[in-house]
Each structure stands twice: as C-alpha cells, then as structure tokens.
Amino acid sequence: METFSLKKFFGSFFQWLPWVKTARYAIGIALIFGVILFVYLKFKPQTQNTTFTGTVGKVNIVQSAKRFFIPFIEGGVEQRQGADAFNSYLRAGLRFEF
Asked: Which of 65, 77, 85, 92 keeps 20 to 30 A from 39, CA to CA?
C-alpha cells in the first residue's frame, strides 16, 4: 500500500491529467442534470387559469392540462417461487395515458 505524500498531493495540482479528469466528471454530471432538467420542464404539469366576471359575480375556473406521456421510475424486490434468493429491479420509462 502506498503511503500518503504531501509533495505528491500538492504536485498533482500542477499536472494536466487530474484537471482533465475533473473536467470530464464535471461535464458528465452537468449532462445528467441537464437531461433531468429537460425531462422535468417537458413533463411538468401545466395549469390554465380562466377568470371572467358576469352578472352573478366573479368566477375562477382552474383546469389542469392533460398529460399524455408520464415519466416514471419504480423499483422493487421479489422472490420467485422455488428460489432461495431475492431479485431486485429498477424500471424507468414513459407511461402513455389517453
């Protein structure tokens, strides 16, 4: 096992390879958050507010827009019949409702 060296630790700040690796990780994390933000903004619920006044007074109608594609992530643990081990799963996808 290699021992910790302050000289090697501080020397790595002046090498280009650790900075390239750090930039690669930062870009990857930014892309993942970008995809999550895109999906959230694309599929977030939208409401339509309609306000009108008539002879009976003020009426406020709130309608929520119909969503056709609903993203989902679900996980679970199951045990099959005759098996000793448990299986876990994680599913992600789009649910279509009409």
From this structure: 77
Number of continuous H segments (helices) and E segments (strands) in the chain: 2, 4
CB 58 within 8 A of CB 31: no
Residue 44 within a domain: yes
* 63: nearest Cα among 41, 51, 48: 48
| Residue 91 bridge partners (DSSP) | 74
Q: Tens digit of pLDDT for each residue in 27-45?
A: 999 999 999 888 888 877 6
Q: Read off the pTM.
A: 0.43
CA nearest 60: which of 47, 71, 46, 76? 47
Per the structure, how many domains does the chain have? 1
Each residue of 33-69: b (16+ CB within 10 Å) or e?
A: eeeeeeeeeeeeeeeeeeeeeeeeeeeeeeeeeeeee
